[in-house]
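Bumping with the actual sequence this time:
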Amino acid sequence: MADSTDSPDWLPLAGLFAAIIAIAGLGNYVFAQLGLGRVGSLIWVLGYGGVIITAWALWFRGQTFDPQ
């Protein structure tokens, strides 16, 4: 069995983000099928947007991209 140190540190967080986006997409689908398309779209935007804002805050905010 592989040791847990074999995977990168960011992998669990990336998996969580993928799961949140999938759940938001599923929520969008369910509410659209119930005739509540706007509610589904709101769930999609909040889920996807929340992942993007959280990823920026955790991963990219401290990065510097200075040319050499």
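The tokens above came from a reply further down the thread. The chain has a mean pLDDT of 84.
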